[in-house]
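A further point concerns the way the authors explain their paired sequence and structure data. Showing the layout once, in full, would remove most of the difficulty. For illustration, here is how one protein appears when written out as sequence plus structure tokens:
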Amino acid sequence: LLQLSSTPEANEWLSDAEEQEFDNWLNNEIQTYQTIR
């Protein structure tokens, strides 16, 4: 999913709201990962 979502093709069918929601989720995942480390 992460690899797919970083491609321009995948971004084409993402609406702005969905893209923002994904960005929030991704940032959350990154923060959680860094906290665990």
User: Anything to note?
Assistant: The mean pLDDT is 78. The chain has one domain: 2-36. The longest helix spans residues 16-36.
